[in-house]
Structures are given as C-alpha cells and as structure tokens.
Design a protein that fits this description.
Elements lengths: L1 H63 L8 H4 L4 H18 L9 H20 L3 H34 L1
Length: 165
Amino acid sequence: MDSSLSIIGSVASIVSAFWAFFEARKARKSANEVMKYQKEIKTRIESSALDRLHDETKSVLHKVSYFGPSCNLTSIRGKSAQNVALEVEEYTRLLREHSVHFDDLNIKNKIDKICNELMPNVKGLSEGVSFDDKKKYGSNIYLLIERLLPITNATRQSIALKQNI
C-alpha cells in the first residue's frame, strides 16, 4: 500500500509539473500580448501628438504669413503683431512640451534650436513699431516655422510606418 501511495504521489507530482509548465507558457504569452498592446498605445499617443503638432505648425504658419516675406502695408492693416507673437510663443511652448515624442528620432535638438531662434524674433515682432520691423521679424519667424514642417511631417510618417509594422 505504501508503494501504491508513493506511485500515486509521483504521478500527481509529474502531472502538476506539466500543468505548471503549460500555465507558465500561457502567462508568458499573455505578458507578450500586454507588452505589444502597450507599445501600440504608446505609438498611437505619439501619433496623435505629432498630428496635433503638425496641424498647429500649419496653423501658426498661416497666421505668421500676414507678417511674412510677402506682406505689404495693405495686407497687415488691421492685423495685430502682438497677437501673432503671442500665438507663436504658445506654439513654442507646445513644441517643447511635445518634444519628448521626438527623442527616439533624434530631432529634439533641431526643434530646441529653432525654438531658441524663434524667441528673439517673437519679442521683435511683438515690440515692432514700424512696418519694416514687423516684416523683418515676421519673415524670420515664418521661415523658422516653415523649417519645422518637413520635420513634423517626416516624423508623422515614421510613426505611421511603426503602426503598420
């Protein structure tokens, strides 16, 4: 009888070991799925932020264009350089806030450099009194922001490719 109990105990141990092995495989598979979904969620958040950033870039570029390279006295009549300067200042804050999404793509430094170059021009546009001052600073701002369009667009395309892989 002792030997039959020993055999039954051994069989139960072997069955338990197989059961534990299969449960561990299921747990690993579930953990891999969770990691996959976490990566997908992160990619979608990045994509959403970059879409917003790209849209904001185009919007601010349009507003700055009133004081951009092709402006004239008639086109800026009734337009507030102060308001446009405030919009650009808010835009640079948005850029810096979302710059974390560019770390993986080595673009953050370019954006920081452009933001740093924008600020003296924003101040100049805001304080500008003459048409020439407003056109000079407005044109500088316009050209700096225009340099960001290909960066934000390429980054959006790169994120979209990540989503499709």
